[in-house]
Amino acid sequence: MERILRRKLRNGGFKGVTQSISRKMSAVRGSGNKSTEAALRLALVRAGISGWKVGVKGLPGRPDFFFAQSKLAVFVDGCFWHGCRRCGHFPRANKAFWRTKILRNRFRDRRVSTALKKSGVRVFRFWEHQLSTDMLRCIERIRAALRARP
Hints:
The chain is an alpha+beta fold. It has a single domain, classed as VSR Endonuclease (Endonuclease, Chain A, 3-Layer(aba) Sandwich). It has 5 helices and 4 strands; from the N terminus they run αααβββαβα. The protein has a 4-stranded mixed beta sheet, sandwiched between helices. Helix 3 crosses helix 5. The radius of gyration is 17 Å and the shape is globular. The termini are far apart.
């Protein structure tokens, strides 16, 4: 990933990223975030929905939740990291880097969803803001998909 970003950036460098910013960004967890995956996990348990696994290997993109019986993959996308059009943004500092990174994340998300769909897996993607504003709708959507399993 870093090599691809370096090719896209002017002069091939990550100029403008201080050590403190780099440290903060590297501390952001890729899974198990309290505002996203953990919140959905708790809501699934409270709703009595079971049969899911977390971080299943062997599937494109490693879905956050996978319901094997129903062949349903659920991803929870952070608004910043996945470029939500409603509340995501490109930071002002080192804009070229962040724009490239976030657009590549969006591209990867589309590629992963397509690969899963081609293998017969239904894909749900929820934005971080959807979980915080309307968790009930997200849970009901999952519940309906599990009832209507293929």
